[in-house]
Amino acid sequence: FEPIHGSAFDIMGKGLANPVGTFWSVVMLLEHLGETEAAARVMAAIERVTADRSLHTGDLGGSATTVQVTRAVCDQIASGATPRRKAA
Q: DSSP state, 80?
C-alpha cells in the first residue's frame, strides 16, 4: 500500500509534496485489515482537510506545505473526525 506517482527528487525536502495520497494508502491498508472504523476516521480527516482551501498544496493551486497538510490530517484524526453523513 503505497502511493506511486513517480519519484520527484527535484522537490524533495522543500515541503511541496501533497501527502494526501499517502494517507489514502493508509485508508486502503486499514480496510484490507478489516479496520473499517479506523479507515473511515482517516478518510473523514482527509475529506475535512481537503475541503479547506487554505490547506491545498501547490498541485491543487494552494500554498500549504507538506508539513501543514500532514499536521492538519493528524489533528483531525486525533480530534476524532467522523465521516459526514450523506444526505438522503
A: T
CB 41 within 8 A of CB 80: yes
pLDDT, residue 6, reads 73
Residue 53 DSSP code: G
pTM: 0.87
Q: How far apart are CA 78 and CA 53, in angstroms?
A: 21
Backbone Cα Rg of the chain: 14
Give the tens place of pLDDT for each residue, 29-70.
999 999 999 999 999 999 999 999 999 999 999 999 999 999
How much helix, strand and coil, in percent to the nearest 5, is found in the chain? 55, 0, 45
Contact present, 18 and 69 (Cβ < 8 Å): yes
